[in-house]
Fold this sequence. Notes:
alpha+beta, Alpha-Beta Plaits, single chain, 6-stranded antiparallel β-sheet, 2 domains, 4 helices
Amino acid sequence: MPDFTLTAAPPLAGTDRSFGDIKLSTPKDLAIVSIALPLGGEDAAKVAIKAAFGVALPEIGLSVVAKDKSSVIMRLGLDQAFVLFPRATPDAEPHIAAQLKGAAYTTDQTDAWCVLQIEGPGARCVLERICPIDLHPDAFSVNAIARTMMEHMGAIVARTGEDTYLLLSASSSAKSFLHAVEVSAQNVS
């Protein structure tokens, strides 16, 4: 019987394409851990987040980079946030849980999401074709995040730089999500 070795890989691993001045890629070794603030323990969780990351939990719809630049916290809702950080090994959740010292609930979300980064002067034009939210810089500033739909698929859009966006969608529809973004990029390039 042959020996097989399975290696975990993100669903869009290796994506690295250009469409004119637009670059589409998949961040390497990106871990995603959700943080849920416990009912009645919100203040203690916020204190633990500040101690662990050196920054306060951002307002809903915003993200913040940790003081040591090791991670990004995305505030998705009243009691929910995602922490994104580079991690090649499959132990992302215990890493964040240890930092928070039990003050919040944590769940590894790395395998549940596919992640694309789109950047370049035409990135916003690509997203405006498939995303119903207002992405104009006056309405969607750097560090803004939003849950939305893209081509009938649930997505999170995060503006991480002047012309750079991080896109998250369900890993179960990763190829369809990539296809939607690629077609839009082809149409504007």
